[in-house]
Amino acid sequence: MRRTAPIIILTLICALLISMALAVALGPSGISFGSLFTSDNAWMILWEIRVPRVIAAALVGCGLAVAGTAMQALFRNPMADPYIIGTSSGGALGATLAIVFFAGTGRTVLAFAGAMIATFTVYFIARRGGKIPVETLLLSGVALATLLSALLSFLMYTAGRSLHQIMFWLMGGFWNIAWNDVVVAIPILIGGAGIYLFARDLNILALNEEDATHLGVNVERTKQILLALSAFVTGIAVAVAGSIGFIGLITPHVMRLIVGPDHRFLFPAAALAGAILLVWADALTRTFTSDMPVGILTACFGAPFFIYLLRSRMKA
Question: Which UniProt keywords apply (predicted)?
Fold first, then answer.
């Protein structure tokens, strides 16, 4: 633990609150403070559109960052991320099934189920002798994501009138967010809190599994619970905002450099940083790019970061 970690977390909390306030104020149609008292339209835009959208972006960013932190710790692998290892793709497939066959009803449940199945499939494929080599993990994730992509393409081919909705939703964004979507996203906080309860166990697992067992950690049970919680959080995030990549890859790395590897501080720091990152990404796309899907922006700076990590690992 670094002595400055609590101060950094408090700073991130303040930064998140300021970011959310600014994101609410920003937009293609400017809203002045005075117009809130003189224009019904200004109040409606603020309260019914921007506020829930900013809150949802913060919750989704928080969830993806926490899930990515947990997966990197579990697999002891810096390349692990809900998007890369196929968890997001599984959630996207489940949610798409709900859109095509049930008009969106049960989207959260099916997204969670898809994310859960995809996560545990990659886990069991990549696991060899109690270890998960980075190459096997990446190849397993790519193979599963390719299969899920093919199934998604088939659903889109047969979707008919739902095709346009699926296309935009898969790009990842917060166009049609309303207060009921915020309610759906709130369980992300519950899942994140459940993951945080295992911070001490993850600190011990960072040594090795044998030492963790001697110190009283039920390794396999811990892995299964954390994978389920990570899939739960990712599934809800995907159901709310579509497939948004690389938030769970970037923020844990940056925060680990700043606050250190202690998961008691890394989890809240990564959650706050992920929320800030996605709030600003959504605000920028909404303000300057005619509401371009935010998933495009996160992929633009996330993919080069992933390549950098891969190259650094190869040199090491």
Answer: Cell membrane, Membrane, Transmembrane, Transmembrane helix, Transport
Per-residue pLDDT of 120-178, as tens digits, reads 898 888 887 766 776 787 788 889 989 998 999 999 888 877 888 788 778 888 988 99
Please state the three-class secondary structure of the chain as a single string. CCCCHHHHHHHHHHHHHHHHHHHHHCCCCCCCCCHHHHCHHHHHHHHHHHHHHHHHHHHHHHHHHHHHHHHHHHHCCCCCCCCCCCHHHHHHHHHHHHHHHHCCCCHHHHHHHHHHHHHHHHHHHHCECCECCHHHHHHHHHHHHHHHHHHHHHHHHCCHHHHHHHHHHHHCCCCCCCHHHHHHHCHHHHHHHHHHCCHHHHHHHCCCHHHHHHCCCCHHHHHHHHHHHHHHHHHHHHHHHCCCCCHHHHHHHHHHHHHCCCHHHHHHHHHHHHHHHHHHHHHHHHHHCCCCCHHHHHHHHHHHHHHHHHHHHHHC
Rounded to the nearest angstrom, the gap between the alpha carbon of residue 20 and the centroid of all alpha carbons in its chain is 18
What is the C-alpha to C-alpha distance for residues 303 and 254, in angstroms, rounded to an integer? 15
* The token pair that represents 308 in the structure block: 């950098």
- Sort residue 162 into left (φ over 0), alpha (ψ -120 to 50) or beta: alpha
> pTM higher than 0.85, yes or no?
yes
Which amino acid type is present at position 9?
A: I
Intervals of the chain under pLDDT 70: 1-2, 28-40, 130-131, 134, 313-316
For tokens 């980075």, the residue is 134
Token pair of 109, please?
Answer: 């449940």
Encode pLDDT of 78-90 as tens digits: 777 888 788 888 9
- Residue with token string 């992300």: 188
